[in-house]
Amino acid sequence: MVSTLQPPSNDKPESAELRTLIDQLIDEQKQLQTPVARFSEYHDRLPDLADHYRNLIPLSKPGQGEQYAFEVSLDRCTGCKACVSACHSLNGLDDHEAWRDTGTLLGGESSPGWQQTVTTACHHCEDPGCLNGCPVGAYEKEDDTGIVRHLDDQCIGCSYCILKCPYDVPKYSKKRGIVRKCDMCHQRLADGEAPACVQACPTEAIRIVKVPVTGRTGTLAPPGHSTLFESAILNGRSTLPGSDITLPTTRYVGRNVPASAHAADREALVPQHAHWPLVFMLVLTQAGIGLLGSGSLRPDTGLLVAGAILFNLGMAAATLHLGQPLKAWRFFLGLRTSWLSREILACSLFAPIPLLLAALPLAPDFPYKDSLFGLARLSVLPVGLAAVFTSVMIYHDTRRSLWLFPLSMPRFFGTVFAFLGTGLATIHPAFGLFAILAIAAKTLPELLTIGFGLSERAWSPLRHSGRLLLGPLEPVTLWRFGLAIAAMILVIPAPWLAIPILLASEILERQLFFQSVHAPKMPGHTGTSH
């Protein structure tokens, strides 16, 4: 007997069931009233929202003693990234380029369950670090609006503004070889339109307001409100710097921020960019100055030629760091405020000295040859050390903990004196002890940083740097110290062999100098760094 199975019959067609399910989902979405749903419904009711958006920007330009600023309501920000997407689309940014970011703050020990999303862009500071540090005048702060604008056609792509900004605002465009950043959609504001991020935010968490330019309190919110800068940045345990560095004008208002709040990505051990052209520029120029100094103190043609070659190779490496090197001749525009401009000037003044020291001993006799050679010998160390001092100040001026003067000065000057002593050891072994002491002394800042990484103290920028040296950068750290020890062992019996080993050790030391630094920025997300 064969039985037949019939499929169950349905009274309703399949399309009717599908339509009913979609209708139910739409009804549920309306009941949830998410920010996006409310925003969409608002658009459907009022197609022309020009008047509405004008409520999110001032109706008149800033008056005397005022400027435009972003105001972010912490109560309303959901971290949806609509502002990030709108900014990217309207400004035609490259892939992976963003002028506005979102991140997360965590409550810390006092409020372990507290969490807050934060949207951030350029803070259009009262005293912008990017403008002050630029060597070619590629930034301007508008007198009438206070907006800090980047002038793309003036930029040489040196990226020093990125190091100078304590909020990670300027972004380097590899495609264009220049830096770019948020300009508060100044052209839209001039036409009475809201910036892209303001217009795109579904919860109206971002507004443009006029704030008083007070000189010291640009970040303070109206009475009765808390601010992200004052509550989170200044507690010393956030990844963010104090607002007294550049006087940012962005106001974060609304929700109270716990005193122990910190960025969610504070513990992310992500090495920074190595900046290889700068690594070679700094090491080779400082090593060259050291060898030139030894060759001028105890005249030795081999040392003078080696020093001249190293110094000029370092100067050539510096140009590789520029996205637009042909515009670098304009460096004199930043001499008043930029240590980078001063470094370029100091190195340019030193540049003829190595050529004179290396070439004059080989040149035929001519009047004043000895006087010229003697003047070059006397100038090499004073002018060379002045150039190294400007390099120290370039990094000290960024306010990054690992690069402050007490830690960067021994490392930079230590390179000069290590090669000075090693060079003198090629003339007489007695100078080898001086070289050993110089090499050992310049490792002290690194050992101090490693000590912070081993400590159980509360989070700090130096502890973060120490943990990087002992974590992701540990192989480089071991090689750096291993080569330094090898150079110290060889400097007396074989000083010429010690020179290339010391050079390799110093290159690794300078790589760690850049990669282990803690770079302050606005909050990111857990486990990330940008």
Automatic annotation (TrEMBL):
Q: Which UniProt keywords apply?
A: 4Fe-4S, Iron, Iron-sulfur, Membrane, Metal-binding, Repeat, Transmembrane, Transmembrane helix
Give one Pfam hit by family name.
DmsC
Determine if Iron is one of this entry's keywords.
yes
Main location per the UniProt record: other
Superkingdom assignment? Bacteria
List localization entries: Cell envelope
TM annotation in the entry: 303-323, 344-363, 375-395, 416-441, 478-503
Record domain 4Fe-4S ferredoxin-type: where: 68-98, 146-175
Name assigned to this protein: DMSO reductase beta subunit family protein
- Name the species this protein comes from: Haloferula helveola
